[in-house]
Structures are given as structure tokens and as C-alpha cells.
Design brief:
This protein has about 240 residues and is mainly α. About 50% of the residues lie in helices and about 5% in strands. It has helices at about 5, 10-25, 25-40, 50-60, 65-75, 105-110, 155-190, 215-225, 230-240; strands spanning about 85-95, 105, 120-130. It has a three-stranded antiparallel beta sheet. Helix 2 crosses helix 3, helix 4 (about 50-60) runs antiparallel to helix 7 and helix 8 (about 215-225) crosses helix 9. Mean pLDDT is about 80; it is low at about 190-195.
Length: about 240
Amino acid sequence: GVPVFVALGQTEKDFLEAIHKLRENPTLLRNDAEELFRVLWSVDEGMTPEVVTGLVGWLLAGEEPDSWLVQLKENGRSTICGHVFQGEEFVFKCNSCAKDPTSCMCAACFEKSKCRELSHQYQMFRSGGGGCCDCGDHEAWEPAGFCPRHGERDPGDDDEADEVAADVAKVAPTLLSAVLRYVMQGLFHVRAEGNVEDPGEYLVVLFNDDVHDMQTVEHAIQRSVACPLERARQLMMEAHDNGFA
């Protein structure tokens, strides 16, 4: 796609200098971000959702956002993996580390764990979809079998993670507040054109959680979209199996 600085009519040097300047001054970021999003609303040609998303990424990361995200994932120290299994995806269960019959690991975590190195007996099977990786979860998996990303932390890793968190936290509240106002303008723009009355304009995602029981979710779906119980149950089960519907 078109680089963000090209879509904004800037040179790469000027764009990088502006990003750095905005991130160093939260007040300037707040004022300029709001003004920038107002300008984006008045420009149609070349101002695609990808360009707007890329701009937000640059302001949040302070560098090329795609590579920043890749590095963040590779070096991240999340407590629990939580990867949601897709249909036909390979899943692993270690007979020595799994604490209950449903505990399992994704391939990425298992390949880096010590289970095979310690000659643990394990099973490999294909997922039917739904469920998530238990690596890092002390209630579901023995810590000795955690992969390095979700295992014990080194003090230096925590310091690096804290630096990244502090850097993002410096700009995130101001930036996301401006993004929210930009989104709200979009909703009001749709309403002004009258499209809000057309049910076909709505797109809703139903996410699974560990709080609501199945019957409650079925009734909530029925009340929200006025569908038959059979359809509500179908949507509920899709979210239950896949994590979302």
C-alpha cells in the first residue's frame, strides 16, 4: 500500500520528525491529533482505513508499526499464552505437565518448552476449533513445562518490558481518545445520511467468556437481534467453539 507519509503529502524525513515531536509532547499530540483527524475526515482520495490505521500505529510505536508489533510479540513476556486454537491446528498435551484432561499447548509454545528435552510423554492431535493454549497458566500446566516466553522472568526482561509499557502509556491515552472521537464522528456521519436505520449496516461480533452461562447468552442474542431460539443457540455455540461469532 501507499506509505503513510506519502498519503499525508509529506517527505519521509518530515514525517519522522513530526512523529517524534508529537510523541515527546502530549499536549501537542492532543491538539494536533484532533486537528489531524478532522483533516482526515475532509479528505477522501487516498485516505483509506489502512492509512489512518498506519498513522495511529506510527504515533503509538514511534517507529514502523508492523515491525514493532512483530518484535513486541517475539520479545513479549505475557503471563499466559491464551492462543485460541483454529480448526485442524496441531495441539499438544503433555502427560507429565497437564494438570487436567483438557489442558493443552499450541505448537509454538510446545516446540520451545522442555517437555521433549525432559523425555515427557505427550500426545499430538488436531484441534476441532475453540479452546486456548494453557502455557503460563499455573492452574492448568506444570511450570517446568512452560515455554521461555511464558515461564519465569529474568529481571532484565522486566526492565525492558517496563520501558516499552511506559513509552506507550505516555501517548496512548491522548491518542486513543482522539481515535475514539474520530470513530464517533464516523457513526454520526452514518446517522446523518440515514443509513443507521438499515439493519444491514450493522456488524456485531459476539465473544466467548467465562462468566455468562449458555442460556443467558442465548436469551441475550434473542433480545438483541430478534432471532429464533434455534438461531440464537447456533450463534452461541459458534462463539463457544471458536472464541467468537
